[in-house]
Amino acid sequence: MATVLYITAHPLDPEESFSLAVGKEFIEAYREANPRDEVIHLDLYKENIPQIDADVLRGWGKLRSGLSFDQLSDAEKSKVARLGEIVDQFVAADKYVYVSPMWNFTLPPVLKAYTDATSIAGKTFKYTENGPVGLLHGKKALHIQASGSVYSEGPLASIEMGYRYLKNILQFYGIPNMEAIFVEGTAVRSAEQVKAKAIAQAKEVAKRWSLVESIL
Q1: CATH of the domain at 56
Q2: End-to-end Cα distance, the chain
Q3: Smallest Cα–Cα separation from 135: which of 127, 143, 146?
Q4: 7 lies in a domain?
Q5: What is the pLDDT of residues 134-191, one digit of tens each?
Q6: Which parts are annotated binding residues for FMN?
Q7: Which residues contact 25 (CB under 8 A, 6 or more apart)?
Q8: The domain containing residue 187 runs over which residues?
Q9: Distance between CA atoms of residues 210 and 214, nearest Å
Q10: Number of structural domains, the chain?
Q11: Is 216 contained in some domain?
């Protein structure tokens, strides 16, 4: 049995969002093909994701200096503990499905905050004499991204910073490849045709997303 984090970053419903509509079809097909797997839905707009602010930085600094957790302020305790919960849940999972729109060429701020929460030395990566090394081997990831124009190829590809950002972050964690389903061109093509094509692709990907293969 595998644990899948289904991570959505859109404030609307699947009926109103192209990315969520495709994501919903993917996860339903995945559950049907993998009934023993545990799927945990993280709606980032409903989750408590602390910003890395002064409380967090000071709290982490106190812990590194040798102070105990009980010696942190109430605000520091709350935020540091919550960030620990987020990264521990992330590390424990086997597969990750990110669903988001492209906003201003990149991710919604709440998804960036989530990646900040999971980018913790000693948890998802470590520092070595030869540079940072990812710690999350043998895991899988998928990004479903919707956009009004086409960014996966063509003249706008160089300014696409949503999928590329997540791909680079996960490679940093030790996950070499992240698949993508682009629901793109909804503002310049037939939106319903774009969505239908992406849903068909999502169902196919879901069927073959079975066992996690170890990466040596």
Answers
A1: 3.40.50.360
A2: 21
A3: 127
A4: yes
A5: 999 999 999 999 999 999 999 999 999 999 999 999 999 999 989 999 999 999 899 9
A6: 17-19, 102-105
A7: 199, 202, 203
A8: 3-208
A9: 13
A10: 1
A11: no
Q: What are phi and psi of 196, to 5 degrees?
A: -60, -40
Cβ density class 9-33: b for 16+ within 10 Å, e for less: bbeeebeebbbbbbbbbbbebbeee
Beta carbons of 174 and 134 less than 8 angstroms apart:
yes
Q: Check pLDDT > 50 for residue 22.
A: yes
Tell me: the pLDDT tens digits for 49-73?
A: 999 999 999 999 999 999 999 999 9
Give the whole-angstrom CA distance, residue 83 versus residue 115: 11
145, burial (CB in 10 Å: exposed 0-12, middle 13-18, buried 19+): buried
Q: Is the pLDDT of residue 213 over 70?
A: no
* Paired residues of 209 in beta bridges: none
- Residues annotated within the binding site are 17-19, 102-105
